[in-house]
Structures are given as C-alpha cells and as structure tokens.
Amino acid sequence: MKEKTLKKEEMFLSQYACKSKDTIGRLRKEEPCPMRTDFQRDKDRIIHCKAFRRLKNKTQVFFSPEGDHYRTRLTHTLTVSQVARGIARALSLNEDLTEAIALGHDLGHTPFGHSGERILNKLNPNGFEHNVQSGRVVDILENDGLGLNLTREVVDGIINHKLKCSPITLEGKAVSLADRIAYINHDIDDAIVGGFITKDDIPKHLSEVLGETSRERINTMLFSIQRESDGKDKVEMEKGIAEATMELRTFMFERVYNDKTFRTEETRADRMITALYEYYMKTPDALPDFYRNRLDKDGIDTVLSDYISGMSDVYAVKTFTEIFIPKNWKN
Predict the structure, then answer these.
(1) Cβ contacts of residue 135 below 8 Å, gap of 6+?
(2) CA distances from 44 to 13, 48, 78, 220, 257 (A)
C-alpha cells in the first residue's frame, strides 16, 4: 500500500508538491511504517492525540452558545482540512501532508477563542501565540512530554499557518489560505444566526464579486486559487478576489469580532484566566503533576501558558469554580 502511494505521488503530483519520500524527517528517527507514508502517519497521530479531542469544547467565536449548530474549534479545524484538501487536489499537491497540517494547526489554541489568546499574551512576559503553542503541543507536550515526533514539514506548516507567516511548503501555504477562507465564511454564517449581522449587511460590491452565500464565496475563492496557481510555485488567489476576501475579513472584524457583546464576554474571560494564572503563580504546587514537574525546565510562565491554553472552555470554568466559588455546606 505504501509503495503504491509513493508511486502515485511520483506520477501525479505537481513538481512543486512535497512528496513523502522527500521529507526532511523527524526530530527522532523511527522505523518507517510498512503501510503508511510519514505524512499519513502524522495525520493519524494528530487525530488520536488528547489536544485534538479537546478542540470540541473550545470556542471558535461565540462563547458557550445555546445552539448546537455554532462552530467550535473542532468543527473549524475539520472545515479547514476539507478546504485545504480541495486546494491541494486542484493544484496536485500532497493531500496527506496538507491534511496533517490542517488537523494540527489549532492544537495549541486557548479556551475562549482569540480572546483567550490575547489574554495569555498579556499575562505571559514572553508573549503567547496559538500557532507557536500548537508547535509546542506536538513537539513537547503531547504523549506525556515526549511529543508526537511529527515530520518537520507538518510542524512547520502548523507553526506558520497565520497570515503573517511563510510556510516552507505549498501544502502549508494551502492550509494558511484555507484557514482564512474557512473562518471568514463560517463566522459569517454564525454571526447571521446569532443576530449580529444580516445577509444584507454584507457590502453589496463584495457579494457581487465573491457570491451571496458561503458556498458561493468558497467556490469563488477556490476557483480563483486554481486559476492563479495551477502549475506554478505558489498558492494564491487572483488579485481582485484576494482583495475582496481581505475586505470581507475587515468587515467581519468591524461588525462582529469587535462587537461590544464580544468585548463584554472577553472581559469576563479575562477575569477568569487572569485569576487562574495568578492563583497558580502563587501556588504552583496546586498544578497537576505533569505541569508541576516541568517548572524547573520551562519556567513558571511557560508552564502556566501550557496548562491554561490546553484547557477547554468547560474545564476552565470548572477549575475556576472549584478554586474561587464557595461550595454549599454539607452535613
């Protein structure tokens, strides 16, 4: 099976794709799997890790929504994976590498979405970025401190998926672009359901260029990438579509992400995360064994960021409640 995959890659992938046989390799050498390529193996390791499972209870945009159909960090991750694979397929890139990067790109994300990220970045003197933390999760924190020992191409794509970064592979660039496409469009859907905007609020000239619905917009963006990048050493949209996409992103920041409702909730999250951070700073012995045992090696601020960023929304609230909320007396 593995040999068939390697032969297919040689026959059908673009000259600019990252082929499995050309991987830089892992930090620690391992016996190769007889059935799976290294990138397929990485994908499986990510899906089975604890950090991936915790994504189901982490906020995407809306804190603790009362409906079942709002996106979570896990559903966002799955959407990014599908969009990124669509890009990879259209450009004859390595779908296994693309999928592995996409599935791992948000493993280090905080509870309470980007609000949690901003709060930890403020609290930690060394700063905090979820993409860098995702790399730390797969390299160090998972598997009881041994890490997942992923290939360097996957780790690079995970760490460099943000807009400001530059991954070393086209597959990593596909994930970075897919992340933007996914969150802009599904956040629009959630914002409409939540009553923050209506369909008619979206600037008409953007709808005329990109489409009226998420499906139409995503198709427009993907077809644009294919037209602009097929057979070339790049993964980009055409200029006009790229500009419209970024203008739509700006619209979402102005009308949704910076809405006073979200700012109010962020203030509450700030109080909670700050209280937890300060509590464990003063009483590090209260940390779970795994994190307490890393204090001498990593330092208190890194360990606190590791622990708190790894919490789900539910676990963060539960921990805060157990520490700070008085309990009922029992006879």
Answers:
(1) 108, 155, 158, 159
(2) 22, 6, 14, 31, 33
Residue 330 has what pLDDT?
52
Q: pLDDT tens digit string along 114-153? A: 999 999 999 999 999 999 999 999 999 999 999 999 999 9
Contacts of residues 236-240 at CB distance under 8 Å and 24 or more positions apart, as own/partner, are: 236/177, 237/177, 240/209
Instruction: For residues 279 and 320, give the distance between their C-alpha atoms in angstroms, rounded to a whole number.
Output: 10
Q: How far apart are the two ends of the chain, measured CA to CA in Å?
A: 64
**Cβ proximity of 130 and 108 under 8 Å:** yes
Checking if the pLDDT of 198 tops 60, the result is: yes
The answer, yes or no, to whether residue 167 has pLDDT greater than 70, is yes
Lowest-confidence range among 2-6, 27-31, 222-226, 254-258? 254-258
